[in-house]
Write a structure and sequence with these properties.
The protein is of the alpha+beta class. It has one domain. The protein has 4 helices and 8 strands, in the order E-E-E-E-H-H-E-E-E-H-E-H. The strands form 2 sheets. The chain has a 4-stranded antiparallel β-sheet, covered by helices on one side. The protein has a 4-stranded antiparallel β-sheet with strand order 5-6-7-8. Helix 1 packs antiparallel against helix 4. The protein is globular, with a radius of gyration of 18 Å. The protein starts with a strand and ends in a 6-residue tail after the last helix. The mean pLDDT is about 90.
């Protein structure tokens, strides 16, 4: 794996993106990127599939949180556990489907807080949220996610049996100065991908 983008959170922690191809060969449409959260205590794969186009959405999310536009919706309450609510929402969808009474909408009030996701890594699956708290701080939060898909060698476990294992894996406040640096880095990386994508050139 080749590290292609490192976003420093603080002196010890960072988020980095990797790909299997050489940097000289990356492009916007076909290169697959994965993301990891690297701290002094742990290494967590927080995103399992992105293409270069996704960096436009990620940059937009950063710009929103910089401008205090990703506050937790009032419908969810003030101090809530987004990861737990996200798991409960997904379970509600599954139960409705199994009962033959699918929900009219899969929309979740906290969906705007979603930032990155690793939903195909069995018991290492997790979801990353990026949002503004009540004071306007930028919060990065990673929570464990129920593994909806199991490999052949991995025994299935019901949601109810898994739920006691749920936890917030990482939570920190990121300064807005750092977010501004992330935006610059991600924009530069995105522009580099565009430049290297031959199909986009005339």
């Amino acid at each position: 794996m080749n590290k292609v983008l490192i976003l420093q959170i603080n002196q010890t922690d960072d988020v980095y993106f990797v790909t299997e191809v050489n940097v000289e060969e990356v492009d916007v449409f076909y290169t697959i990127f994965k993301a990891y959260l690297n701290t002094k205590d742990q290494l967590i794969k927080i995103h399992n599939f992105s293409t270069g186009r996704d960096f436009y959405d990620l940059t937009h999310s950063l710009e929103e949180v910089l401008n205090n536009k990703r506050k937790i919706p009032k419908e969810l309450g003030g101090k809530v556990d987004l990861g737990l609510l996200w798991n409960e929402h997904n379970q509600k969808i599954i139960l409705a489907e199994e009962a033959g009474k699918p929900l009219k909408s899969w929309r979740w009030e906290g969906g705007k807080m979603l930032f990155l996701g690793n939903d195909s890594d069995e018991f290492n699956s997790c979801t990353t949220f990026l949002y503004n708290d009540e004071q306007g701080n930028v919060v990065l939060e990673v929570s464990s996610t129920y593994p909806w898909f199991f490999g052949e060698d991995v025994p299935d476990i019901s949601y109810d049996d898994w739920l006691p294992e749920y936890k917030i894996l990482y939570k920190t406040i990121i300064s807005k100065d750092v977010i501004q640096k992330w935006i610059k880095q991600m924009t530069a990386f995105r522009d580099m991908l565009e430049e290297k994508t031959t199909c986009c050139k005339e």
